[in-house]
Each structure stands twice: as C-alpha cells, then as structure tokens.
Amino acid sequence: MARETAAVIGVGQTPYRIHHADKTYVELAQAAAKIALDDAGMTPDDIDAIVFSMAPTEFMGVNDVDRWANAHVWGADKPFMRINTGGATGGSAAQAACDFICSGVYDTVLVVGADRVAETPDAQHILNLIWDPFYEQDFALNTITMTALAAQRYMARYGVSEEQFARVAVRARRNAVGNAYAHLKGEISIEDVMTSRRIAWPFKKFDICPRSSGAAAVVMTNKKIAARQCARPAFVTGRSAISHTVFMGDRLGLWSDTEFADHDGFWMAGQAAYRQAGVIDPWREIQVVELYDPFSSFQFPQLEALRFCAAGRAAAISDAGGLDLQGGGVAVNPSGGTLCTNPIGVTGLVRFIEAAAQVMGRAGDNQVSGVHRALATAIGGSTQFFTCTVLSDDA
To answer: Which end of the chain is more exposed for a tag (fewer CB within 10 A), N or C?
Structure first.
C-alpha cells in the first residue's frame, strides 16, 4: 500500500538535435538538471536521491557513463541508481522515483539523464545486439525491420494503409512546430511522407524517428513539499509496467496468449494504471496522451490497447482529426512525440515530462485547454518492456 503520492514540481529539457558540439555528455545532463531544479525552486541540497535515466551507453562511446555523470548532476554523497530498460528507460526511471517517494524512503528525488545517439555511426548495429544470439540475432533484425514486420501484421489484421500511417507523421511534425525543444518540426504533406526514401516496407524515411542528442530532468516530491513549492503540481495517480519475453515469435500465433502487432502489453499495463487513477473511460477522462512512437505505426495499436477506442478503429479517428492538438477528441503527442525527437536514454522521460507539463499548464504554445489528466507511455527492447503512467491535477 502506497504511503504517499508523488508529484512533479519541476521539469527541464535541453533542445534536441543531431549533435551538441558545445557541450559534453555530462554538461548536457547537468544543464537539464539545473533547469529542473530552478523550475522547482530548489537547490541540489534539497534532493535526497537521484535516479539516472540511461539506456545502452555504446551509442555515445563511454561505457557506464553514469559513473562520469554522477558528480555533475550533484549525486556525490547521495543514493544514486541507474535505470536501463532500453527505450522504456525514461518511463521506468520516473516510476522508480515514484516508488521511492510513495514508500516514504525519500521525500524529493531528481530524475535526470541524457543521450548522444548520433555519436555512433551505426545505431542499428548496436540495437541488433539486444536479441538472442542463437535464435534471432542472425536474422538481420534491427529495430526498423522488427517494427516493419509488426506494422505489416497490423495492416493485414485491420486494413490500415500506408497513407494513414503517413498522416500520423504529418501531424507530429506540425505539432512539433510549437515545441522549442523538438528535433524535427515543420509542415510536410502525406505525399512528402509517401515519396520519402523507402527503408523497410511499409516504412519510408519520414515514418521513422531521428537519432537525437539532448537531456531531460524532473524533480518529484511528496504532497507536503509539493504544496509548499508548486502552485499546480502534476500528481502521479496511476502507474504500471509490464514485461514480455524477449522472443518475438513467442508473442503471436495459436499457442500465444498475446499478439505482437497489437502492443497488448499496454492493455495489461493500462488496466492497472487506470484502476489506481480511477479512470473508467479513457477517451472521456484523459485529455492528453504522450505516446512512445518512434515509428508512425505505433500510435494506433497503443491507443486501442489502452482502450481509447476499439481494435482497428484508431486510424479512422485519426483521419477524422480526432487525435489533433485541438481536434475535440484526445490530443495525441502535442509535443510532436518520439517521431520528432528520440534521445533513447531519456525518450520515455520526455514523454513523462510533456504529459506533466500539460497538467501543470506549462506546455507553452502547445498547451491543450482544460487538461486535468494526461497519460505517458514508453516501450523498450523488442517491444518487450511497457510503462504506463497517469498524471492528474488532483491527488
């Protein structure tokens, strides 16, 4: 039984781009931590513990980079924990901080991390190494070909077209125009997406996220301190995480209870998070969703698994504008999402931060009116780890 409710009282991000020539890795992490502390009206002395959000460090060429970063994010002489669940790392790190606060172990926790994915000439080679060396690694799988197979299966099951995926990419780039931190942004057309370079069917270049560098941080605390420090905190009212086997072949077919193409890990994670937050009808009770969507095919199965609509219905809602920033339905990825910005070690934390900012009324030009609840997700590994977090303006 949780003894406390965790609240977000400060957030910080650096701009995301392909490369930061003006800052080292640790300087990036420190910059985001300083912004979050200032936003919370705190100093490093107010922090009881630090959760460091960092996925594989091979991308930026320094092994176990959390050792280097510790002192730069004011972690010396304090409890310090690194989290790594692949792409879900940021979501898992935020939930670990919640656990510390809700259990009463610590009052105030800083979650911080950074990534420099473009430091490696071939990120897909490194990502290929996550698979089992005997059964899956030799199939030339990487995150793009793996996800393309899942997208093909989803299209066959529900009749979704490449053009409907392309509309997701168009909406993401348009939303990102109002996000000062976003890596990719601007007006593009469905034709632009359809005629961009083919990578792996059904994906073209514009269906796929960039390799981003940058940092993110968040200050979380208990209700008592939040009431003193922040006029409108974002309370974490529901959170859950689910893990699958690493073997993709075991997650589909006649002998499996799950369906690889449907992201059904979110059905299980969402049910638990909704139960904690008291959410019965997500479409009516959640105003903003920040989904982990490094590919244009990721939004539809997530929304369906999270019960925003029935299976196979999300594409039609997207076509009708129901997922637009001010479309009258649920605003999906007002920030532009992972399709526009993907610093892997903190991508899930960015989703959490953007959802919290919407609840706190601090989302700037992309603020959605009347936000009382927001949802943030993250996915890691071979769609193996799922995190789902509900943030609310009322504890």
So the answer is: N
How far apart, in whole angstroms, are the C-alpha atoms of residue 258 and residue 174? 34
Question: How many angstroms separate the CA atoms of 108 and 4, rounded?
Answer: 12
pLDDT in tens, 257-280: 788 889 988 999 999 999 999 999
Closest to 13 (Cα-Cα) out of 213, 263, 246, 312: 213
Burial of 260 (0-12, 13-18, 19+ CB in 10 A): buried
% of the chain surpassing 90 pLDDT: 81
Are 270 and 307 contacting, i.e. CB atoms less than 8 angstroms apart?
yes
Q: Please count the helices (runs of H) and the strands (runs of E) in the chain.
A: 13, 12
Q: How far apart are the first and last CA of the chain?
A: 16
18 — phi, psi (to 5°)? -65, -35
pLDDT of residue 2: 57
Q: Provide the pairing of β-strand 234-243 with 198-200.
A: unpaired
Contacts of 295 (CB under 8 A, 6+ apart): 144, 147, 151, 203, 207, 208, 209, 339
Which residues contact residue 175 at a Cβ distance below 8 angstroms, ignoring those fewer than 6 apart? 325, 333, 334, 335, 336, 337, 340, 366
The per-residue pLDDT for 236 is 98
CA atoms of 378 and 376, how far apart (whole Å): 7
What's the mean per-residue pLDDT of the chain? 94
CA distance 16 to 181: 6
How does pLDDT run across 32-52, given as a tens digit for each residue?
999 999 999 999 999 999 999
Cα separation of 216 and 351, whole Å?
Answer: 10
CA distances from 366 to 7, 75, 388 (A): 22, 33, 22
